[in-house]
Design goal:
four-stranded antiparallel sheet; globular; mainly beta; 120 residues; seven-stranded mixed sheet
Length: 120
């Protein structure tokens, strides 16, 4: 069973960058679909980026508001998934969570989150 720990959040000015990391413990990390979610104050949690599978190939998907600014990647040797965030905007503020799911299954494993605050 995978356990997840996020790091890398912080305070940054609009237009700046942050890099989040999520380290997974447990076996078969490479088989999991990995995702980053975020939750802003007073808003519902939304999925930001996914590193998943299509056939035997990894794929990536992003919510429209972050396309071209955020990049999700993974290193299966280090059991780590990353979220590189560039061109940050105040509306990107929130708690960012890493989550894992077996292909075709719901996200049932989630870290505790890391706070990202973007000042204007």
């Amino acid at each position: 069973q995978v356990q997840l720990v996020e790091s890398g959040g912080g305070l940054v000015q609009a237009g700046g960058s942050l890099s989040l990391s999520c380290v997974g413990s447990g076996r078969a990390f490479s088989t999991y679909v990995m995702a980053w979610f975020r939750q802003a104050p007073g808003k519902e949690r939304e999925i930001v980026a996914v590193h998943g599978w299509r056939g035997n190939t990894y794929t990536t998907d992003y919510t429209d508001s972050v396309k071209g600014r955020f990049t999700i990647s993974r290193d299966n040797i280090k059991n780590t998934v990353y979220l590189q965030m560039n061109g940050l905007k105040p509306e990107d503020t929130g708690v960012y969570y890493c989550a894992a799911a077996l292909p075709g299954q719901p996200y049932d494993k989630r870290g505790r989150g890391t706070q990202v605050t973007v000042s204007s």
